[in-house]
Amino acid sequence: MIRVAIIGATGYTASESIRILLNHPQTKITYLTALPQECAPITDIFPACRGRLDLPVEPVDLEKLADKADVALGCLPHKVAMDFVPDLLQAGVKVVDFSADYRIHDVDLYEKVYQVKHTDKERLSEAAFGLPELFRKSIVGATLVANPGCYPTAASLALAPLLQEKLIAPDDIIVNAVSGASGAGRKAALPFHFPEMNENLFAYAVGAHRHMPEIEQILTDFTNQKVQVLFQPHVVCMDRGIFESIYCYPLTNVTADQLAELYHTFYANEPFVRVLAKPPATKNVAYSNFCDIFPTVAKGKITVFSAIDNLVKGAAGQAVQNLNIISNIPETTGLI
Ligand SMILES: NC(=O)c1ccc[n+]([C@@H]2O[C@H](COP(=O)([O-])OP(=O)(O)OC[C@H]3O[C@@H](n4cnc5c(N)ncnc54)[C@H](OP(=O)(O)O)[C@@H]3O)[C@@H](O)[C@H]2O)c1
To answer: Of 86, 143, 327, 330, whose CA is between 20 and 30 Å from 136?
Structure first.
């Protein structure tokens, strides 16, 4: 059994990690932590755990962690995560970090985008980027995995085949994204208050979302060409799900059938990417680790639609996929 600790056990991605791990045949949740003022039995925090998981949520104690866990899932916000990760690694556990703190290789870019000094720069080069479909080899054997952002996961999986085949202009890509409200986390915030959110849809972070450089980094690293993306997120009144419509300028004539063949070949051995013959829908990926993709041609532009569950392939499911890889067990364990 792989013993798993969840650090930041009171949030949405933690709750989703618990849901997935309780159905995982080779893991056991052994330790849950949170800030002292939030500590309580997990069944009080998430009553859905009643009869399934009976553990206290406790303040982090590194000796206990070392004793009880092999892997820690860090479900903490960015800026907070880098205060915890060095100690977790020091305690001898492997870490899958959900935050952005170990995702961006360029520390100046990180500090500009996140408006904070990076306090653990030395470790940036050690962290494997946890998007298995594109960077699997570097995840195997890693002790620290930077789990990707939710929007970047959907966008990068949608764009990688086109960019690798040099079918589109790498500096003229528009990613138009819509997310459910759980993408903002569990903490109360006015825009997500029920009367504000209900029956509503709005754009935010115009031209400046923190995931834009992450998408560019992933695709630049994967294809060895400088990729530039205009990324525009929106929030819609649903709990979970990300839907992206992506518009690209073709560099060569290509038909929808040729695109379908390209994507089917590219993802032929990927258990969590489904290439569809029509646009995906968030309902069809909800609670699953799938990314559904439909590439096509419309009015001379290449258009790709991509859908994931932000809390699963966008966070906890992908983290378990990474946990499986670093634990040397089949990647799909507990996920299909
Ligand atoms: N939500 C998504 O769809 C999604 C997708 C991909 C990645 N992520 C990333 O995953 C991470 C967790 O997101 P989430 O949605 O689960 O957020 P969340 O629901 O707000 O949960 C965050 C957790 O971190 C704890 N925390 C906050 N500040 C802390 C501090 N100073 N010290 C210790 N613990 C602290 C919170 O405790 P309290 O109970 O005190 O608030 C809570 O347990 C973030 O980095 C996020 O960017 C989220």
So the answer is: 86
Q: pTM score > 0.90 for this model?
A: yes
Fold of 2-148+314-326: Rossmann fold (3.40.50)
Is 150 a catalytic site residue? Answer: yes
- Whole-number Å distance, alpha carbon 206 to ligand 1 midpoint, is 23
Which burial class, exposed, middle or buried, applies to 136 when counting CB atoms under 10 A from its CB (0-12, 13-18, 19+)? middle
CA of 96 to the centre of ligand 1 (A): 14
Query: Which residue out of 76, 95, 285 has the highest number of ligand 1 atoms within 8 Å of its CB and is therefore the one to mutate?
Result: 76
Domain with CATH 3.30.360.10 in the chain: 151-309
- Marked catalytic residue, from 150, 237, 248, 291: 150
Is residue 34 within 6 Å of ligand 1 at its C-beta? yes
State how far the alpha carbon of 140 is from the alpha carbons of 69, 137, 331, in Å: 19, 6, 11
Q: Would you say 74 and 83 are in contact if contact means Cβ atoms under 8 Å apart?
A: no
How far CA 200 is from CA of 193, 197, 310, in Å, comes to 11, 5, 19
Q: Is 117 in the pocket of ligand 1 (CB under 6 A)?
A: no
* Residue range(s) occupied by CATH 3.40.50.720 in the chain: 2-148+314-326
User: Cα of 158 to ligand 1 centre, how many Å?
Assistant: 26
φ, ψ for residue 26, nearest 5 deg: -120, 15
Instruction: Match 């996920």 to its residue by tokens.
Output: 335
Which overall architecture, per CATH, does domain 151-309 show?
2-Layer Sandwich (3.30)
Kindly report, residue by residue over 150-203, the tens digit of the pLDDT. Answer: 999 999 999 999 999 999 999 999 999 999 999 999 998 999 999 999 999 999
Q: Does 315 sit in the ligand 1 pocket, CB within 6 Å?
A: yes
